[in-house]
């Protein structure tokens, strides 16, 4: 009974420990993911664009030359396989022709056979014929194997050429996209500069009033100048509010005749 209780306690502790460790790892992964996201957000856009530009350049310096080199190697290997097939096929045809001559001699019920200018016994010729025939068959099997190798290499070459074409197209596409992103980043910078500028509304109002005042002053001066040029300035300067004098009074003054002072006459009458 005690053993069962002890095992139960140990099992509970083990489960709790595993759960605690699992939670710890979960929290650690969550914190790490948040930290990575913050780091990515803190990276300046220009720095990220420069990094991407270098990665695009690596396509032209590393990946594309590697693909071109692999294509060249495959082409050389394909040429070697084709040459081997051609040589083997020529050898087979030549050996078959020679063996056919031996067969024709053996079928003629002769006691000796002439092979390569030498006279051989029928038994030796038959044994040699069998060995050579088997060798020719092996060469034919070799050709079949080489045909499969050639087909596989040609398929691989085709795939490499297609990948190279796609890689070059992707590089051009990436460069165009990068250039567009750089242009967009410049536009964002200019927009941020404009939004950061704070204009004092009172100062702007004062400037507008000053400009309006100067504009009105210039209009007045232009009006005066135009009137002066048109001869209207004399009429403007005339004192039209002064009442006209009596002509008789002016004549009496000029002839030395004194005129009675109305104010003086009125005082004497008192």
Q: Count of DSSP helices?
A: 7
The dominant shape is: elongated
Radius of gyration: 58 Å
Main sheet strand line-up? 1-2
Topology, number of strands: 2
- Pick out the low-confidence regions: 264-270
The arrangement of helices and strands along the chain is HHEEHHHHH
The proportion of strand residues reads under 5%
Summarize the structure.
By secondary structure, the protein is mainly alpha-helical. It has helices at residues 2-42, 45-106, 122-196, 201-229, 233-237, 247-255, 262-268; strands at residues 112-115, 118-121.
Structure keywords:
mainly alpha, two-stranded antiparallel ribbon, 7 helices, elongated, disordered C terminus
Structure description:
This protein has 270 residues and is an all-alpha fold. The protein has helices at 2-42, 45-106, 122-196, 201-229, 233-237, 247-255, 262-268, and strands at 112-115, 118-121. A two-stranded antiparallel ribbon has the order 1-2. Helix 2 runs antiparallel to helix 3. It is elongated, with a radius of gyration of 58 Å.
Mind sketching the topology for me?
Blueprint (H helix, E strand, L loop, with lengths): L1 H41 L2 H62 L5 E4 L2 E4 H75 L4 H29 L3 H5 L9 H9 L6 H7 L2
Antiparallel strand pairs: 1-2
């Amino acid at each position: 009974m005690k053993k069962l209780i002890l095992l139960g306690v140990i099992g509970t502790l083990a489960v709790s420990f595993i759960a605690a460790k699992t939670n710890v790892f979960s929290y650690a992964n969550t914190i790490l993911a948040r930290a990575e996201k913050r780091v990515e957000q803190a990276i300046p856009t220009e720095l990220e664009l420069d990094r991407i530009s270098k990665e695009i350049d690596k396509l032209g310096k590393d990946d594309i030359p590697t693909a071109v080199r692999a294509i060249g190697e495959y082409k050389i290997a394909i040429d070697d396989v084709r040459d081997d097939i051609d040589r083997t096929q020529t050898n087979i045809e030549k050996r078959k022709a020679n063996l056919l001559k031996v067969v024709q001699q053996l079928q003629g019920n002769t006691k000796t056979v002439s092979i390569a200018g030498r006279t051989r016994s029928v038994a030796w010729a038959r044994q040699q014929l069998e060995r050579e025939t088997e060798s020719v068959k092996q060469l034919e099997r070799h050709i079949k194997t080489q045909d499969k190798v050639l087909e596989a290499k040609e398929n691989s070459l085709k795939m490499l050429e297609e990948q190279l074409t796609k890689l070059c197209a992707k590089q051009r596409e990436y460069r165009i996209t990068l250039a567009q992103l750089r242009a967009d980043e410049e536009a964002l910078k200019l927009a941020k500069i404009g939004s950061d500028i704070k204009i004092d509304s009172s100062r702007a109002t004062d400037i507008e009033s000053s400009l309006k005042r100067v504009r009105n002053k210039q209009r007045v001066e232009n009006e005066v100048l135009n009137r002066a040029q048109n001869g209207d300035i004399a009429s403007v300067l005339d004192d039209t509010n002064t009442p006209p004098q009596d002509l008789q009074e002016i004549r009496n003054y000029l002839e030395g005749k004194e005129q009675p002072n109305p104010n003086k006459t009125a005082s004497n009458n008192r």
